[in-house]
Amino acid sequence: MVRWGMVIDLDKCTACQACIVACRIENNVPVAGEEALQRGRSIFWNQFFSELEGEYPDVRLRMFPRPCMHCEQPPCVDVCPVEATYKDAEGRVLVRYDKCIGCRYCMVACPYGARYFNWLPAVYPGAQRAHVSPDIVRDADGWLVGPSPRPSGVVEKCTFCIQRLEKAKQDDLPIGSEKPGGVVSACAETCPAFAISFGDLDDPESEVHRLSRDKRASRLLEELGTAPQVYYLLEG
Amino acid sequence: MSAEAQANTRREFDLPFAIVVVAAAIALAAGLVVRLGELSEGVDAGTTDRIAWGLLVVNYVAFIGLSAGGVIIASLVYILNLKRFKSIATFAELLAVISILLVPFFIAFDLGRPERAINLVLFGRIESPLVWTVIVLTTYLVVCITYLYYGVRRELLALAERPGRLQWLYRLTLFGYRDASEASFERDARLVRRMSYVVLPLAIALHSITGLIFAVVGARPGYHTAIMPPLFVVSAVLSGIALVTFVIVVAGKRVKLPVEPGTVEELGKIMAILLPVLAYLLLMEWTVVFYGANPGPLNVWSFIATGAYAPLFWALVVLGLVVPFALLAHPRWRTRRTVGIASGLIVFGVFLERYLIVITPLLFPTLPGSIQLFAPSTSEFLMVAGGYGLGVLLVALATKLFPVGVMYDQLRHGKPERPGGAGSGGIVGPSAREK
Question: The complex's ipTM?
Fold first, then answer.
């Protein structure tokens, strides 16, 4: 079985946030603009968090990117009333855009804030229009799960760049950070510090499999029992 | 219609009633315009990426709760055989049905894709508490309408037998039913009595499930507590009875309800019993939270009690719990006026409770970050007002078109009928105030 996962090494991470930008471009995430930002409505499939730990003078700034955790026990899937969000055969949590009714229960249930509602129709002003990726991915029943076009009034989220993986399968390319020329998610590909590894957690040969068993490996809010498929290697 | 009746009509043109109806219609129209704009321009509520649910969900929860009043009062009549409430049971049930009808309205105004609401039926996942709600709410609505209908069939038949402008309507609602024998009315009464045993557990299930929508969310401190379902049941029953009482006190005479003397005071007594139960459940929750070291719920409730929402919280405690209890506790203070004020305060207080319970847990970040405050938008207020407008219109329409209260008086007490007759007019009915 394939089970896509990610490991983010916080010792290597320089907090440059290139992963955040790469994600937006790869997945056509529209720029929010000042007004939407002030209203607390800005879509970040991959979001950057910073946290001050300790008290002065023993302070440490901890920063980390947060894609969707693609939990093994996803609380969002449990509450969805219409099978719009689901765990697919390759271990991804996906949203069927054209099935979602926009009740936003999954956003309330997600402990990671990884799910975003398309409050407004997506607009790509000026030159952005030309850079919108036309990729579309549909599931076996024909429901839209890929990134483009993005309908308003529904919830969306990180797909582990499903369009890249589907294309790699079509073109018979290898997938995973450990493989030469292996296709990975946009954030992993962009990372200049090689802090993000992507691959199959169930493949004993894979880098993510090895790193996820590292003694620095940790998962966000592990106490909730969601069992994320995204691991962090904490600062050593 | 006779000339005399027409004169009657003109004389009885009811200005305050007309103002209320027009205002309600304007509110509904404004809400609809905002919503239609949203469908093309995007959702304009005060909700954010973190605070995914806003005022419309609060109202959705509140109106599910308000529907409890009719059911409880009707059950008191038929299960506990409390005859005193019989005169208002029908009206209470009517308010319940209208409250339930507003629930899908608020859902449709909240969903990002209301046109896909049918997916709830086509692809409903039984694991989701929202689907439990859909199933139980639909059942509840059908049962409540049936319950209401069989409860007033005798009055409808009496209305249909008299000539009048709306006679066709009453005939239509009877579906060919003509049997005016006592045995037939007995059968209806028996059916209604039996249905009470179905309706009551359904109501408990519905309000528990509404609480479970929040309680099952393990990731949200403040939602994730087993007190939610019982708290929602008690809040629902209390606010529901308070709504019925409030409407009877404010508009009972205007819509010509046959309220027997002492009924309002008796409702006040029931609320005086329920208020401490609600306070008790809240107190238990707070005790556990404040003694525990779990920062999640502690943050939520500390913020509610001392943060930006403290005014709402203390309004709930003082105006929603303490003052109404003080007004209702002593039998000598329970007059029509005080019970009316207390019931209004209770409806308001329970609404604040809903607001605090639904909104506050969403303000807090689950990952590093700071607290975010919720500010409902103008659009949101207009859509909520639209829902209230629809509710008022439905109550006005139902009470004017179906003056069953008047018929109830005539059938039970042989009260005389004025020229024009109850069935003669839509907007104007006869005066039933001759006591």
Answer: 0.92
If you measure CA to CA, which chain B residue comes closest to A104?
B52
C-beta pairs of A121-130 under 8 Å, 24+ apart in sequence: A121/A152, A121/B41, A121/B42, A122/A28, A122/A30, A122/A149, A122/A150, A122/A152, A123/A30, A124/A28, A124/A30, A125/A31, A128/A31
Whole-number Å distance between alpha carbons of A51 and B257: 62
End-to-end Cα distance, chain A: 32
Peptide bond into A57 cis (omega under 30): yes
Are residues B123 and A112, on separate chains, in Cβ contact within 8 Å? no
For residue B176, the model assigns a pLDDT of 79
Max Cα separation, chain B? 77
A81 contact B CB<8A: yes
**Other C-beta atoms lying within 10 Å of the C-beta of residue A37:** 11
Q: How close, in Å, is residue A140 to chain B by CA atoms?
A: 16
Check: pTM over 0.80? Answer yes or no: yes
SS3 B395: helix
- β strands within B39-98, DSSP E: none
Task: For residue A232, give both structure tokens.
Answer: 């962090």
Question: Shortest Cα distance from A84 to chain B (angstroms)?
Answer: 9
Q: Across-strand partners of A63? A: A50
B42: alpha, beta or left? (left if phi > 0; alpha if psi -120 to 50): left
Residue B4 has a pLDDT of 47
Collapsed DSSP state (helix, strand, coil) of residue A51: strand
Low-confidence ranges of chain A (pLDDT < 70): 236
Q: What is the pLDDT of residues A39-50, one digit of tens each?
A: 888 899 999 999
> A149 preceded by cis ω (within 30°)?
yes
